[in-house]
Predict the structure.
Amino acid sequence: MKIKSVVALLIIAGAYAPALYADDLAAEVDALRALLFETRQNYEKRISDLEARLARTEQIASSARRDASEAFEIAEQTAIDQTSGAAAANTFNPSAGAVLFGRYANVDQTWEEIPGFLPAGEIGTGESGFSLGEAEINLKANVDDRFFGNLTFALADESGEVEVELEEAWVQSTGLPAGLGATGGRFFSAAGYLNQSHRHTDDFADRPLPYQAFFGGQYRVDGVQVRWIAPTPLLLELGGELNWGGGFPATGNAESSPGAHTLFAKIGGDVGASNSWQAGLAWLSADVIESGDTATFSGDSDMTIFDVVWKWAPNGNSASRNFKIQGEYFRRDETGIFDGIAYDGEQTGWYLQSVWQFAPRWRVGVRHDAVNADNGPLLAGTELEDPGRRSSRDSLMLDWSPSEFSRLRLQYTNDQVLSATDQQWFLQYIMSIGAHGAHAF
Amino acid sequence: MKSIAALFPLLLIPLSASAVEIFACEPEWAALVQELAGDKATITVATSAFQDPHRLQAKPSLIAAIRSADMVICTGADLEIGWLPLLLRRAGNPGIQPGNPGNFMAADYVRKLEIPKLVDRSQGDIHPQGNPHIHLDPRNIRRISIALARRLIDLDPANAAYYETRQADFQSRWNEAIDAWEQRAEALAGLRLVSNHRSFSYFAAWLDIDIVATLEPKPGIPASGAQLAALLEQLSPNPPVAVIRTPYANEKPSRWLSARLEIPELTLPYTVNGANNVTDLYALFDESITMLQELLQ
């Protein structure tokens, strides 16, 4: 009975117990759930925080990598810079270049003077056969922060003797403001379009007749030049030169006052993307004393030069194809005494030429050049007697430039400078070594 | 042709009297100055994408423009050797002479590729300082933008904060753009191309593109018929994917080779305004990558 009642009690208790703990358990499970949820949320937040930190770190690492590789590159570049420059005395060497000329000519009728014109220096057809042209050597560099210096001399063989000619020796300002520039020394005058360019950049084997007749090939000034560029969208440049040199055309005049002066104006600009142009006007006035070889001229020589050049290239890209046309007109009034005779003469000259680069290495060109002297009837029988005709030439050229630094040229000229016509052929090479040449307009 | 005419804003009307007048030798630098200086600068561009920047002449319009410039920004590394020194000497403008704050040569601020071991003209018209076509690696643009902003501040200290903000803004957008381009261009790695001139060396180095040959036998020297024939023979066994060139390069040799190899011939924009839709530096890289991706499809 006692055992039975104990068992019964246990059974009752057993049955009752779950009921007794059920509420507690549910609460506990809820609590656990909440804890779990909170923990999960916590972890999720921490994970996402960690992820964000990781992303940031990766970003920093990648930018650090980039910085590091940049730093490496800069270090490398510095190393290159420091080792590639020659730290010797020649670091300050000026840019140096030389131009080599040579030609083969087939000329039957050579000339050294143009009828009706005073001898103007070394001009003319030159001899037939192979001849070395001048070897031109150029040095140039900034002198300091205010000046630029340029020296060009030419070596030429004159019947077995090597002659050195000082072509250019000038200094130029680089520090003047407001579009001003000043040049002093021996330089090529800014009168005329072609005059300022070096012979090796010419498009034909020889200079046009007016350049030969009026300038002896090239007009050099021993003196000063001042030029000013106006603050305009179109180029407008004005300038003047004083020449103390004794060279042609102010021959014999090397006195204390300048023998010749020049005033010049240039304008130029673009038309669309493909065209560029420039026009110039110059007045040259010379006080001449005893110019000439046997008979001499003394007096005033006044010259007006008008030049215009037009260049075309597709979209302004001259590398493959381009075309240019240029012309200049010269007119000179001379008043004075020639060979003891009072004399008032007028001479004119002009040329028109056009060059077409039709393929990357190839160019063809055509040129007509002419000069005419009207020296009056008083000089009949003298050296300056009117020839009674124009001296003119027609030339065709074809040239091939394997690179920017070399050029081979074939030229045909129908020469009517003297009374008889002469068919002339020239084969010419022009090669530049050393410093890169300038692309002047 | 109207769009091409618009590419030559040689003489813009100054926006204000105090604007910094900039003479940019190439369109990429004009575009970069535009990014950094906004309306504080008036910009004149000397060349367009259709002009070989090496072969220009010191023409009258450029002399007139450089005379009044407060700053010249050019590539340097001898790219403009034929005409810039001449312009600078004619300018009558001391502030832009070399060594002055108004003279900025972009190539001074980046590492150059293809620095010749042998500086000799028998190797073509080489540049002793290395390949000057530096702008086609956008990382170079970033480096140059930093130096250029500093230079603008030197020249125009009154607007220092303006330039600083614009540079920082440009740099962060540019970095994002670089990341995006690099991601987009992953598939271009190893792409085999033939180029007319070494104009794309920096672009190729950046994206790991393989320029297997150039049409020019030597830099600046146009190929002769025989040289092209030899190149054709060399490339025939394993033809590249395309022939690429700049807008200013002679199209004839590229077309000849592309026809013989039966591969596409592609004119990449090369610089700003090199194609109709390429109006800024971002579009330049976007479009170049897109054009090359189209080759893969």
User: Anything to note?
Assistant: Chain B has ten helices and eight strands. Confidence is low (pLDDT under 50) at residues 1-17 of chain B. The beta strands of chain B are 20-24, 41-45, 71-74, 103-105, 192-195, 210-214, 242-245, 265-267. The CA atoms of residues 187 and 293 of chain B lie 8 Å apart.
